[in-house]
Amino acid sequence: MNLPKTGLEAVPDCPSSNHTGERRSLQDALAHERNVLRTMIDMIPAYIYAKDAGSRFTAANKLVASRMGTVPEGLIGKTDFDFYPTEMATKFFNDEQALLKSGRALIDCEEVAHDSITGQDRVLLTSKIPLHDEHGKLTGVVGIGFDITERKAAEERMASSDRLESIGRLAAGVAHEINTPIQYLNDSVSFIREGVGELLAYIDKLHAAMPQNPDNKPDGNDDVEYLREELPPALSRVADGLTRIAEIVRSMKHFSHADQREMSDVDLNAAIASTLVIARSEYKDFADLETSYGELPKITCHGGQINQVVLNLVVNAAHAIGDVVARQGGRGKISVKTSVEGGFVVAAIGDTGGGIPEGIRARIFDPFFTTKEVGKGTGQGLSIARNVIVKGHGGELDFDSEPGQGTTFYVRLPIQRAG
pLDDT tens across 112-143, in order? Predict the structure, then answer.
């Protein structure tokens, strides 16, 4: 049956309504895609960023922004000069502008960037590639960097360990080779001293048997008296010098002989004494040494590693005193004292340097922290000494310091190792 038309029949969808829905769906999809990409980029443990042709940031992930002390939105339109020291920012800018000029990417370049969170510089392995628009025109750069600070530190520690081991073997070999001719020289000097004494006595007998000259003196007596006066002290000086050389050689052998891999019973006093001989050239020109060795039991340890700790502390003490002497003149003092405290042997190494400022005392054992100028310190010596060597032996390394008066470091090592 045919029904009359009412005008309420279904009407086809409006084209404009369809387009609006499609646009909304497309916008939602794009927003979702951007959110996914942003989340993925932020999760990557790398420094990821983009810059325009003027080296201004156009995008960055959270890691980059946080290490620069801001948020990703806070970087947009800014340059490295807004966040880094001028010298550091200039290097980054010049590298990027050279890339934009040549069109050649920079791949796996080591860069040093300041970390605002820790206040320290970090080593990054960075790659930067040119960014082109749809017409092929260079419009900026995209960069990615990986933090390799810890890896570099490990490599340097391994290299340092290898160098020390090689130097130790070389020093032991040189000491062994020097020891034999020194023994020859000592024996010869002793023979010459005895011979000179006998010759002078024989000359006296000859003079007594010779006729006297008008002045009642045998001919040539002045020369004999001169030799009698000068030869014995000259030979004594030679003997003293040879004794000093022999002492240095023995110290070199003792210092280098300590096994880095196997623990053994070590006389800490003897180890310190040998190390002080090796380190003498670091302080002899501006500081005096004062030692006080207590009666210590032998301890089981890696002797070579403990030698490194003591050497590091003595050299640091020498540098601290050297800085003060350079400003004020005079001479300083390095003091070394050993004792037993409870179940520990203690080596106290003090200096009359300028002391450690209050503001940095909490950081001196941090890796890479140093107050020395570039090229004179890596900031690893004290960190390795305490965190790797002394703690690895179950011991402690701490210090007392007074500004303007000096610093004393205390190395505490257990007499009986746990386990």
Answer: 998 888 888 889 999 999 998 888 889 999 99
Quickly name the fold that domain 30-147 has.
Answer: Beta-Lactamase (3.30.450)
**Per-residue pLDDT at 403 exceeds 70:** yes
Complete DSSP assignment for 47-58 = EEEEEETTS-EE
Class assignment of domain 261-419? Answer: alpha beta
pTM attached to this predicted model:
0.48
Number of H helices, E strands in the chain: 9, 12
Asked if the domains 30-147 and 261-419 are classified in one and the same CATH topology, the answer is no
- pLDDT of 179 reads 72
- The string of pLDDT tens digits covering residues 289-344 is 999 999 999 998 888 788 888 988 998 999 999 989 999 989 999 999 999 998 99
pLDDT at site 196: 83
Q: Which sequence spans correspond to the domains of the chain?
A: 30-147, 151-257, 261-419
